[in-house]
Amino acid sequence: MNNIDLKQLGSATPNSSCLGKGLERYDMDDTNRLYYSVWGDSIHFGMKLTDDCTFDEAIMHTKRHIAEALQPLPGQHLLEVASGVGETARFFAREFGCAVTATNISDQHLAESTRRTKSQNLDSLVSNVWADFHDLPFNDGAFHGYWVQEGIVHAHDKRRVISEAYRVLCPGGRIVVSEQTTETRLLNDAETKRLADRHGSPDLLNADGFIQLMIEQGFNMVRDDNLSLYLAPLFEAIVQRIEDRYADLIKGIPAHIVDWNLDNWRFGASKARDGALGWHILVAERPD
Ligand SMILES: C[S@@+](CC[C@H](N)C(=O)[O-])C[C@H]1O[C@@H](n2cnc3c(N)ncnc32)[C@H](O)[C@@H]1O
Q: Residue 143 CB: number of other CB atoms within 10 A?
């Protein structure tokens, strides 16, 4: 199965107002320009960022780590939720010959992903589809694998997101969740509120919280890769990139938008150094 026929899948109503409060940034030109110029094509975390490993290499290490966890086979049909501009979806199609349905509720991210998919001649393998991960417009058991990177942090009902993942996976199908984790016991009330507002969700989970939800929904845990030591260097690299390019960035992007994001990434770096923020890649399987 390559492109999904949406008519057979029920209705999804594209509506960018569905982006939760605080998440409108993913549909704002200025913020997206900042993301594209600082993060690049992928807005996910990178592994092993050191003097010997560039930012782009760190991002690629993560994609390979996700692939190794998901174990995709040619011809399988995979689902990515919160797919950003689809760079990892195209990576799976290009490298493994999988069909990928890349889903998002940001109209701007979907439009950009569709443009890039066409220009890379991957539209026979990658479909870009509007879908809220709380309520997926797909049939039960439609996918062999499901992954999400730095997306569920935004979910206002994480239990429902995991339950939808379970429903759309076929028996034996794998889920890979890469996510920022939060130890709220290491944060004061103002810091907790700040993170919740930034994520557009009051629901800040640590790794055990995510694992518990996955087990509750019926998944068998395969592994929990704790990559937290890579998080502070990643945020610090983002901060450095903005500082280095600040004068140019504010020629095209309002300074208050650059400053607000810079301040949040500095905060992320310091809380990752404190151990209040972490990064885990969780791998689980729907039983046969
Ligand atoms: C930090 S970006 C990660 C993007 C992507 N995973 C990547 O690796 O580049 C978060 C993404 O989550 C998406 N998102 C937020 N809430 C969502 C929801 N309810 N359903 C689907 N996607 C959502 C945003 O539009 C954005 O594309």
A: 25
